[in-house]
């Protein structure tokens, strides 16, 4: 018979992961606050055959960099996000961050704790779900405990821990799962829904739905079904990713959002793009940073939903658009209350 990996490759030729990168401080930690202070660089990267590096991932994940810490160590952080290109191709990124002992400082001071980040990316949304993040955190624990170790040593350990995910395990076809064994511990790393079934919930839907009242959620669904311009605002990049992915992949089922899409828009200049689009924008970039700030009644032919305050600003033509059928509205209201 055909070996299982070869059988999977005949169904899904792409690898489970397109790449894995190890990120660390751009320069040795120091107290002088130099220009590289807090900036990250790629220490090592593993790419699936034929894949290109994911450019700009450091700035996308940590636009303000990561400062070294003296107290702690801070807890390990796991999160996920999405990068899109101009053709709305989505790259799902799983991230694990911990702080490790860096270069030794003066004897009277505590050693600096420098950030060490593992990020893995794939075209499969399930990579951003908690089960895969748990596996990635376990693999991340295999990395050295001192950031000041020689780079070849770090890269070798990194390759041993993550190489099989990039080079040996293909992406599973719909309706199957991947169970990964690490140190005799099984991880149900990734489970894909059947082709005709409900999509797997790779983001916490309760968190996404909890940002809306019933009325505003129905309004957002109506605007997206009518292919309008919708902008979501928050001070949390994680919350923007969760809510945008919930609308784009799950809440509109059996439909999906195939138009302009970015959970974390790099610039508000793109808000002038032609419809339809679904964008997530940080409140600071939108000009409503700070507690109590209001969306106001400013211009813009898009509808804006503030996920932090619950405020809504509808586009001028939103009131004249068709309403959802009354039967559908009743079923949705009943299911949400």
From TrEMBL:
GO terms for cellular component: cytoplasmic vesicle. The keyword Signal applies. Keywords: Signal. Pfam families: DENN. Residues 1-31 form the signal peptide. GO terms for biological process: regulation of Rab protein signal transduction. InterPro entries: cDENN_dom (IPR001194), DENN_C (IPR043153), DENN_Domain_GEFs (IPR051696). Residues 113-310 form the cDENN domain. This is cDENN domain-containing protein. It comes from Alexandrium monilatum.
